[in-house]
Amino acid sequence: MRKTWFTLVGVLAFFALPASASGNADAGEVVFARCEACHVVRTPAGELLAGRAARNGPNLFAVVGRPVGAQEGFRYSSALKALAATGAVWDAEALVSFVQDPIGHVRASLGDDGARSTMAYRVQNETAARDVLAYLEKLANGS
Prior knowledge:
By secondary structure, the chain is mostly helical. It is built from six helices and two strands.
């Protein structure tokens, strides 16, 4: 009986998670520490939520759902500009793919084996990528 109770509690806890949570935001915060060398998460009002004053990568505040290459004032690579011209949007799956293999994602998305992204860092695996995404969503939602 006791084992059944714990199993039931575990199942209910799993289904109680918010539908948008596809990763662990706390684990994503740890992984994002590596991203801070190039990226910040800054609100439109200018509040710095994560990162330092790095300018090598665009601001990642509310990146999910944002069109590719849409951060004003940032100089994107020609490949990301070409991807932006297709109307591509940073949905969860595109971001998970991109942060694991930026060059591979851009090449596959454009169908161009010569396309290159300037992002050199790769998140280790899909779990870590989803964790970072959960962390970014948490910051964007003010949680």
